[in-house]
Design brief:
It is built from 8 helices and 6 strands, in the order H-H-E-H-H-H-E-E-E-H-E-H-E-H. The chain is of the alpha+beta class. The strands form 2 sheets. The protein has a 4-stranded antiparallel beta sheet with strand order 1-2-6-5. A two-stranded antiparallel ribbon has the order 3-4. Strand 3 and strand 4 form a beta hairpin.
């Protein structure tokens, strides 16, 4: 028989007005989140990052298999190796692989093949997705809903970092197999995302962009 624990629902004792205020406060905090590209080299308490990664580990996942692995990098030599390999892939992307429509979509953001943030940011968090697990007998175990599960965990992570007062930049050079080699990760893991983490450099600017209004992405049946 499966053992079950009694679920603890934090909101069960909250009044509706309190719930609305909490949700509004959370939205106002998340509304201030912006991606930056110019990082300060100012150091970060590693415990903040570890707590954020622990929060990511609380995300729901298919069959509770938790098919993720996070690699935290501050070593300068490793960051330089990651930057060099990523820029090599990015140069091929911008000059050969990317269709014109994609490049046009990126114009207002101002990105190019140069990725200095991969060295300048004090920390990189590389998120890996476990395509399958391996047990103690070296047997392969199928994981379910891997991309969905890792995506949710990454959302938890970015949120936790933002609420801790840190800025982030997500980066997905394609392909990313070089990360397995540089970081000595096993074959069952695939690099999912690189997240640069740190404080904004002084006088950092961001593009003027807008977000869709809720009426554009919410449909209600009440």
């Amino acid at each position: 028989m499966n053992k079950k624990n009694q679920a603890y629902i934090h909101s069960i004792n909250l009044k509706q007005k309190e719930m609305i205020n909490i949700s509004k406060d959370f939205f106002n905090k998340m509304k201030t989140r912006r991606t930056i590209r110019d990082f300060s080299s100012k150091d970060i308490p590693v415990k903040v990052l570890e707590n954020a990664i622990k929060s990511a580990g609380r995300a729901p996942s298919g069959a509770n298999q938790q098919p993720w692995h996070f690699v935290l990098v501050s070593n300068k030599k490793i960051k330089k190796s990651i930057r060099n390999a990523a820029e090599e892939e990015e140069k091929a992307f911008y000059t050969k692989r990317a269709p014109k429509e994609w490049l046009n979509a990126l114009k207002h953001i101002g990105t190019d093949a140069n990725k200095p943030h991969l060295e300048k940011a004090p920390y990189l968090i590389i998120v890996f997705a476990e395509r399958y697990s391996v047990n103690k007998k070296s047997e392969k175990i199928k994981n379910y809903y891997v991309s969905e599960s890792v995506g949710i965990a990454t959302g938890f992570l970015i949120t936790a970092l933002h609420l801790s007062g840190l800025a982030t930049l997500t980066h997905t050079p394609s392909p990313m197999k070089f990360l397995n080699k540089i970081l000595n990760r096993p074959l069952n893991e695939s690099a999912y995302l690189i997240i640069a983490v740190g404080y904004p450099e002084n006088n950092t600017t961001v593009p003027v962009i807008s977000k869709k209004k809720i009426c554009e992405f919410l449909t209600k049946f009440t």
